[in-house]
Amino acid sequence: MDLRLLLVVAPILLAASWAVFHIGRAAVGQLQLFIKRAQA
């Protein structure tokens, strides 16, 4: 694998994984709140 390709792709993958992690955490929090309200 060409090192230049890795230098281009690595920051993109890092940013995408960071975004998915934070959006996923927010989504889980919303889902838990929704379930808690549905049970009440």
What can you tell me about this protein's structure?
The structure is a single chain. By secondary structure, the chain is mainly α. Helix content is 92%, strand content 0%. It has one helix and no strands. The relative contact order is 0.09.
Layout: helices, strands, pairs:
Blueprint lengths: L2 H37 L1
User: Low-confidence parts lasting 5 or more residues at pLDDT below 50?
Assistant: none
Number of helices: 1
Task: Report the major sheet.
Answer: none
Instruction: Note the run of SSEs as H and E.
Output: H
Overall shape: it is rod-shaped
Q: Helicity, in percent? A: over 70%
Give the DSSP E fraction (strand runs of 2 or more residues): under 5%
The N- to C-terminal Cα distance equals 55 Å
The chain-level mean pLDDT equals: 94
Brief rundown of the structure:
The chain is mostly helical and 40 residues long. It is 92% helix and 0% strand.
List its traits.
single chain; 40 residues; mainly alpha; rod-shaped
